[in-house]
Structure formats: structure tokens, C-alpha cells
Specification:
This protein has five helices and five strands. The chain has about 180 residues and is α+β, with helices and mostly antiparallel strands. A three-stranded antiparallel beta sheet has the order 3-4-5, with helices on one face. The chain is elongated, with a radius of gyration of 31 Å.
Length: about 180
């Protein structure tokens, strides 16, 4: 089995020494085909990363190279992908034995160790979403107040006497109103 694995890696131009292979064997399947998946465990994580990267760059028919994840890690990765689909995070991936996520492309990578970490990220995302909705509503209210203040000031300027005096009075009222609404936030 090791010779077959080494021959396959040559197709991807990855030099693999037999001593770098810890174990290689076929996995049983319920399918009634002649080909069974091959599980290869390497001693060197860098070679594993290189092999996976090269296999994605140059795809061969019927040959797939993936990480072999245990059940818990696979579930963590699935939950991270669900959070990505719901836009709580932008990126989720598996690398060097860990599930890793990023909230945005410029933020640091967060290593996920348990489902609690993912729940915290989801809760933070929900809090940010509700905070964003509140800010949008406040901005809409502020813009409506400004529009009404402008329309009333125009009406008063045109109807009132004394021109400049009324205008200064209206401006001072609007400045007081703006200062008062900002201090409430």
C-alpha cells in the first residue's frame, strides 16, 4: 500500500519518503465497488499540508485528498460553517488539527476548541446585530427630526418679522436640540 501512495504523490510532484508514512490502509465501505478509500497517516504535518494543497491545485480523476476528522471535530467544523452561512463569521476552515474561524478578513484567526467558543461567537454576532439595528433606528429618528426642524425654520423665517433675529433664534433652538439628543445617546 505504501508504494501505491508514494506513486500517487509523485503525480502531484510531492516527494514523499517511506519513512514519513506512519500508516496506510484501505477502509471498509458498504459500497460494492472494487475501490475502497485509502487512509494515510503521515509523520510530518508539513508534508500533509503540502500534499493537500497540491492535490487541490492539480486535481486527478477519482482521487480526493482530505483531512481525516474525528466526529467531534467534524461537528465543530459543520457548526462553524453554519455560522459562516448566517454571516456571523466570514471564514471557517480546518488546519493543523484545529477548526479556525475569522469574523472578518482583517481580524485575527480564532482557534475553536469547543462548541462553547462557537456559541460565544454567535452570541456576540447577535448582540452586534441588535446594536446595529438600534443605531439605524436612532439615525432614522435623528434625520426625521432634522427634516422637521429645517421645515419649521423655513416656515418661521418666511412668516416671521425681523428676519435675522428669528433666524438666530431658530438656529440656537436647533443646536440645543442636537446637543440634547447627542447627550442622551
Amino acid at each position: 500500500m505504501m508504494k501505491e501512495v508514494i506513486e500517487m504523490t509523485k503525480k502531484w510532484k510531492v516527494k514523499l519518503d517511506p519513512l514519513e508514512i506512519f500508516a496506510s490502509h484501505r477502509l471498509p465501505t458498504k459500497r460494492k465497488t472494487n475501490t475502497h478509500p485509502v487512509l494515510v497517516r503521515l509523520n510530518n504535518l508539513r508534508k500533509k499540508g503540502e500534499l493537500i494543497r497540491k492535490s487541490k491545485e492539480m486535481k486527478l480523476d477519482g482521487i480526493y485528498v482530505n483531512h481525516y476528522l474525528n466526529t467531534y471535530t467534524r461537528q465543530l467544523l459543520e457548526r462553524a460553517r453554519e455560522l459562516r452561512d448566517k454571516s456571523y463569521i466570514q471564514f471557517s476552515r480546518f488546519g493543523n488539527g484545529f477548526v479556525k474561524v475569522r469574523k472578518e478578513s482583517v481580524t485575527r484567526v480564532i482557534r475553536i476548541r469547543s462548541s462553547v467558543d462557537l456559541e460565544e461567537i454567535r452570541d456576540q454576532g447577535e448582540q452586534e446585530a441588535t446594536r446595529g439595528n438600534r443605531e439605524e433606528e436612532e439615525n432614522e429618528d435623528d434625520s426625521k427630526e432634522e427634516e422637521t426642524a429645517k421645515s419649521t425654520s423655513k416656515n418661521v423665517l418666511h412668516k416671521g418679522r425681523g428676519g435675522k433675529r428669528n433666524q438666530n433664534h431658530i438656529l440656537s433652538q436647533s443646536l440645543i436640540r442636537e446637543h440634547f439628543t447627542r447627550s442622551q445617546k
